[in-house]
């Protein structure tokens, strides 16, 4: 069921001089745990505040890992005042008073796409910090869906706690299976691809032979080109991160 957004808009916005301008933007900062997403969000909010823009951060109500209900807090203890909420659309009236709207832990909001698009259409700059995947490396909330609507998308990477290489994934270190388990270093760590498979408490059981027909499971002859077999293993990477941690 679609929400009638005119009910949520303040009387000021519904006047003729406050029509949609379509000159806002949506910026997505995503990555695994401990990659600096909230730190970067706070840095940008501080910058816009210095330039006399009206700024606000909306945070997920249940995220009280560091005991701060009314603040967005990063793992390195960067803090900024924030409005806690379980959903974003009820915050429309309040958000329209600001020029720049930050959203922390965007993966948890069920109405992230609707709210962000509406704000951008009304000329607001929306900056979202969010995990790009679950601890099982699956789609998390509406993050994948909002990518086509963004003017800017950045993927940050962390440091693998096991080998020190660049980490692209979040690994849960407890045996809790629910997707939404909020926590910090006591429940999660950042890992690279190899260490994810080597150390994960939820191991991947499927192997490459599971995807090859029995007739294809034969030894390669010396005269056959290797590239004829490479497609049966793993395709080479076709892109690189645009942003490193």
From TrEMBL:
Pfam families: TK. One of its GO terms (molecular function) is thymidine kinase activity. One of its GO terms (biological process) is DNA biosynthetic process. Its EC number is 2.7.1.21. It catalyses: thymidine + ATP = dTMP + ADP + H(+). It comes from the Eukaryota. InterPro entries: P-loop_NTPase, Thymidine_kinase, Thymidine_kinase_CS. The keyword Membrane does not apply. The keyword Ligase does not apply. Keywords: ATP-binding, DNA synthesis, Kinase, Metal-binding, Nucleotide-binding, Transferase, Zinc. Belongs to the thymidine kinase family. This is Thymidine kinase.
